[in-house]
Design a protein that fits this description.
The structure holds 2 protein chains of 2 kinds. Chain A is an all-beta fold. Chain A contains no helices and 12 strands. In chain A, the strands form 3 sheets. In chain A, strands 2, 5, 6, 10, 11 and 12 form a 6-stranded mixed sheet that branches. The termini of chain A are far apart. In chain A, 35% of the residues are buried. Chain B contains no helices and 10 strands. In chain B, strands 2, 4, 5, 8, 9 and 10 form a 6-stranded mixed sheet that branches. A 4-stranded antiparallel sheet of chain B has the order 1-3-7-6, with no helix packed on it. The chains are: A mainly beta, B mainly beta. Chains A and B meet through strand 5, strand 6, strand 10 and strand 11 of A and strand 5, strand 8 and strand 9 of B.
């Protein structure tokens, strides 16, 4: 069975602070995929990143970076120098063959960036 | 290009009525998903269509829920005899499968959702 845990329900920071959103997953598969999505107040989920289980290289995209660690089953997301526009709910998701590759989403972390 | 579109944006209905929600996937995307998002919750998978294959209905919560996809493009999610607990945002996503596992691991692109309120 697959499971995704986002233990942080809500995070509040002041603009320009760095913030890390945690994602811990459970799977028995060796082949799986991890995703992060952003859901701004408008409601539409926006794809941020997709990572397969064979690629543990961390990735940086502008102010966003992701730390994938199989040893701890974590796929954490860091926003550097946060901005008000980063305020949104962020979802981590996992798809593996145990779930017939239907993604399982975490419950989301609401990030509030204050000016 | 055009993204995934959904209609209506908002729907208010009375308990016991039927509702139909529509999804237009990205052109060329053969896979289509429906999810439900209740207030403050994550996404709950409902149903998955891939090309001409039989849909994966494993997430439908009851037989009041059904969905179809005509011509491999537009999809309609129907909820019969709506209940108050059906109130949620219904999200549609599409993807272009290119690899293994029927492509279900491919990146999904989401529509803006339909906010359903059952009174």
């Amino acid at each position: 069975a697959q499971k995704v845990t986002q233990a942080q329900t809500e995070i509040s920071v002041v603009e320009k602070e760095d913030v890390t959103l945690d994602c811990v997953y459970e799977t028995r598969d060796t082949t799986y995929y991890l995703f992060w999505y952003k859901q701004p107040p408008s409601g539409e989920l926006v794809f941020l990143i997709r990572r397969n289980s064979f690629d543990e290289q961390n990735e940086i995209s502008g102010r966003y970076s992701w730390n994938f660690q199989k040893s701890t089953s974590s796929f954490n997301f860091t926003i550097t120098a946060s901005q008000v526009v980063d305020s949104a709910v962020y979802f981590c998701a996992l798809s593996d063959s145990g779930g017939s590759y239907i993604p399982t989403f975490g419950r989301g972390t609401s990030l509030i960036v204050h000016p | 290009g055009a993204g995934v579109s959904q209609s209506p944006s908002n729907k208010v209905t009375e308990k016991g009525k039927d509702v139909e929600l529509r999804c237009d996937p990205i052109s060329g995307h053969t896979a289509l998903y429906w999810y439900r998002q209740s207030l403050g919750q994550g996404l709950e998978f409902l149903i998955y269509f891939q090309g001409n294959s039989a849909p994966d209905k494993s997430g439908l919560p009851s037989d009041r829920f059904s969905a179809e996809r005509t011509g491999g493009s537009v999809s309609t999610l129907t909820i019969q005899r709506t209940q108050q607990e059906d109130s949620a945002v219904y999200l549609c996503a599409s993807s272009l499968p290119t690899g293994l596992a029927g492509g279900k691991q491919e990146t999904q692109y989401f529509g803006p959702g339909t906010r359903l309120l059952v009174l």
